[in-house]
């Protein structure tokens, strides 16, 4: 039981004076259950639109059943959402990027949330992905308030006004433990990551600015208290990370919890779970009791995987202030059926009311995604995208390069060599053994492209020097662990370096030497100035010099990265990367992607390293026999464990040097 008692939580409950009376000094007690979702990313239904099959591990329609169950056990309850709602699923991306909201319509996600009776919400960084106008239009139809204290939009004259109210107070009539009515004033304040304005700079330019979460909280909480809030809850779209962690700058829930005047935190952004026995270890983090600096907190996963629950006992002495006497934080899991793990529970059913309410939107997006595009002569998958170039990444690279070549044909940049940066669309991770691209040869539909390109980012181009490109590749290569010669059971991948930060640069060739330590951390910080994993970097057979200039086709998210520094020339386009791939397939009819010899590993004598992939990868091993791969056991989580012999990390037949043509756009 995750219980926070006054004796073991430093929470002197900011609703009270600094010296709290003992619990038995209270003569009025009231139970309040707080329910929370976060990072739904458009998961309206328990359905995987890329495979056109039900999914049992998430979705707002399944969360709705948990909400109904949780409310039945609590006379007083409130329901909140913590952002990243409007982007991240085929349904959400279609409404935000292509279809829009027709006159008189309500966004299907907001419509469902209105029906569920949400009490308040805060946006996340991805809710800005389709622009401020779309976000404001969507929020307008919510029957609950949206709040955010640290996001500002530029008006005429360069003045930045708050995008939303920084905080609000909900006055709710509740019932105490004796059945007497009590009125409680719930103060709510919302936050997005301070980096949001940088991440959205390509789409929004200077229209959006954001401020530091902790500094903003210190400035705003006193006003919220002075306005009469009995309890202050932070809807903070930020995760939990120990100081010095690569992602600590954007995950500041721990220092936020230390701000005087905050009583409860709803966290998000990181897609992790709290409380959780494997949560981060840091000062102020108490996963056993579900507290941050003694204050109850939850971080309820992503895609509707969990419902966060915080049970509070509020008490007061006579007419004194309300304070938190005790709390219990926990997560309710939607659950996922699995034959491979005894821990998996029975899946939560979809709530009938939400299914009926969203039936039209569900049918519309399925119809759109079923449209035929063409055919592929070869399978497209991401089973081995982090150990060798593959057909799926080659297809995306060619589509990006061709688009960019035509887009700059009459610009000064037309004379620059064009490269294409591509990252794996999906590579397991938190998504489990089904979280890989797996498209067989045969017909291609729009849903398959969404599998190949997971995000609705726009095409962008960056002008970089050979030196900057080498730094970029060094950062990408930091996804791998350093390998010890002669060690035969060592992990290949760094679990703290997300796979989506890995880029292959098509149009170049190079080696990655894992006998050397990583040069950069995941946040771009220099770890080892003397280490260089990237070897023999070439363009069309010639060594790349530090002063050589290139134009790289990438997307808006990567182009906005702080890693490239200030002053980098970026070309912006209004075309999505997905649209570019769709048009390439339509134009060719039947695609036969060339697997380009972009990169390979340098031998590390006697080293064998393991990585996990999808069980379906067994059927592809005959194409990769030269890589020194051996299929091993199935892990408790359902992955297939592969081992790679680095004594001879060779190349597949289709990767070997001497391919008939060099990668490049069809100008």
TrEMBL record:
Q: Which residues are in the Calcineurin-like phosphoesterase domain?
A: 32-271
Where does the 5'-Nucleotidase C-terminal domain start and stop, copy by copy?
A: 402-559
Q: Extract the InterPro entries matched here.
A: 5'-Nucleotdase_C (IPR008334), 5'-Nucleotdase_C_sf (IPR036907), 5_nucleotidase/apyrase (IPR006179), Calcineurin-like_PHP (IPR004843), CpdB_N (IPR041827), Metallo-depent_PP-like (IPR029052)
CDD domains the UniProt entry points to: MPP_CpdB_N
- Domain of life, per lineage: Bacteria
Q: Which GO terms describe its biological process?
A: nucleotide catabolic process
Pfam families in UniProt: 5_nucleotid_C, Metallophos
Point to the regions of Basic and acidic residues compositional bias. Answer: 647-656
What cellular component GO annotations does this protein have? outer membrane-bounded periplasmic space
Q: Which UniProt keywords apply?
A: Hydrolase, Metal-binding, Nucleotide-binding, Signal
Disordered, as annotated region: 647-667
GO molecular function (one): nucleotide binding
UniProt lists the family membership as follows: Belongs to the 5'-nucleotidase family.
Q: What is this protein called?
A: Bifunctional 2',3'-cyclic-nucleotide 2'-phosphodiesterase/3'-nucleotidase
Q: To which species is this protein native?
A: Paenirhodobacter populi
């Amino acid at each position: 039981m995750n219980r926070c008692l006054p004796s073991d939580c430093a929470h002197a409950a900011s609703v009270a004076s600094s010296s709290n009376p003992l619990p038995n000094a209270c003569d009025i007690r009231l139970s309040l259950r707080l329910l929370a979702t976060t990072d739904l990313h458009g998961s309206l239904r328990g359905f995987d639109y890329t495979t056109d099959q039900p999914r049992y591990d998430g979705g707002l329609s399944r969360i709705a059943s948990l909400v109904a169950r949780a409310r039945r056990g609590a006379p007083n309850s409130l329901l909140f959402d913590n952002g990243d709602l409007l982007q991240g699923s085929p349904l959400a991306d279609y409404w935000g990027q292509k279809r829009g909201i027709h006159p008189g319509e309500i966004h299907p996600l907001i419509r469902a949330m209105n029906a569920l009776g949400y009490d308040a919400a805060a946006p996340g960084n991805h809710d800005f992905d389709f622009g401020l106008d779309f976000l404001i239009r969507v929020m307008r139809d919510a029957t609950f308030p949206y709040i955010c204290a640290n996001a500002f939009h530029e008006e005429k004259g360069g003045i930045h006004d708050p995008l939303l109210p920084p905080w609000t107070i909900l006055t709710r009539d509740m019932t105490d433990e004796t059945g007497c009515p009590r009125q409680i004033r719930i103060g709510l304040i919302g936050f997005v990551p301070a980096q949001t304005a940088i991440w959205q700079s390509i789409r929004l330019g200077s229209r959006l600015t954001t401020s530091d979460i902790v500094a903003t909280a210190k400035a705003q909480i006193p006003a919220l208290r002075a306005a009469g809030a009995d309890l202050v809850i932070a809807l903070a779209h930020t995760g939990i990370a120990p100081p010095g962690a690569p992602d600590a700058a954007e995950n500041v829930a721990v220092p936020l919890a230390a701000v005087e005047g905050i009583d409860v935190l709803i966290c998000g952004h990181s897609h992790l779970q709290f409380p959780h026995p494997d949560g981060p270890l840091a000062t102020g983090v108490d996963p056993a009791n579900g507290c941050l600096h003694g204050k109850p907190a939850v971080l309820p996963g992503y895609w509707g995987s969990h419902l966060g629950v915080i049970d509070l006992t509020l008490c007061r002495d006579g007419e004194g202030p309300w304070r938190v006497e005790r709390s219990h934080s926990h997560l309710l899991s939607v659950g996922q059926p699995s034959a491979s793990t005894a821990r998996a529970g029975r899946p939560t059913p979809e709530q009938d009311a939400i299914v009926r309410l969203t039936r039209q939107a569900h049918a519309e997006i399925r119809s759109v995604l079923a449209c035929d595009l063409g055919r592929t002569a070869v399978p497209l998958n991401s089973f081995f995208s982090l150990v060798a170039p593959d057909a799926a990444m080659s297809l995306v690279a060619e589509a990006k390069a061709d688009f960019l070549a035509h887009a700059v044909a009459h610009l000064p940049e037309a004379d620059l060599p064009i490269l294409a940066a591509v990252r794996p669309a999906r590579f397991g991770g938190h998504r489990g053994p089904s979280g890989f691209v797996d498209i067989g040869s045969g017909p291609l539909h729009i849903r398959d492209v969404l599998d190949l390109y997971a995000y609705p980012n726009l095409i962008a181009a960056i002008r970089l020097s050979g030196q900057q490109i080498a730094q970029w590749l060094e950062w990408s290569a930091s996804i791998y662990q350093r390998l010890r010669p002669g060690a035969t059971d060592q992990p290949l991948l760094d679990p703290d370096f997300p796979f989506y930060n890995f880029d292959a640069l098509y149009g170049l060739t190079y080696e990655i030497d894992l006998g050397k330590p990583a040069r950069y951390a995941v946040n771009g910080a220099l770890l080892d100035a003397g280490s260089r994993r990237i070897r023999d970097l070439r363009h069309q057979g010639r060594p790349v010099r530090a002063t050589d200039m290139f134009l790289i086709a990438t997307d808006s998210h990567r182009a906005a990265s702080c890693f490239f520094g200030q002053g980098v020339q970026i070309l912006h386009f209004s075309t999505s990367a997905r649209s570019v791939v769709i048009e390439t397939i339509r134009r060719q009819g039947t695609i036969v992607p060339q697997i380009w010899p972009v990169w390979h590993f340098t031998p590390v004598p006697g080293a064998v390293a393991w990585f996990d992939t999808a069980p379906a990868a067994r059927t592809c091993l005959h194409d990769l026999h030269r890589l020194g791969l051996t299929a091993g056991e199935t892990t408790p989580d359902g992955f297939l464990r592969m081992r790679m012999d680095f004594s001879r990390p060779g190349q597949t037949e289709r990767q070997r040097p001497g391919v008939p043509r060099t990668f490049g756009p069809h100008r």
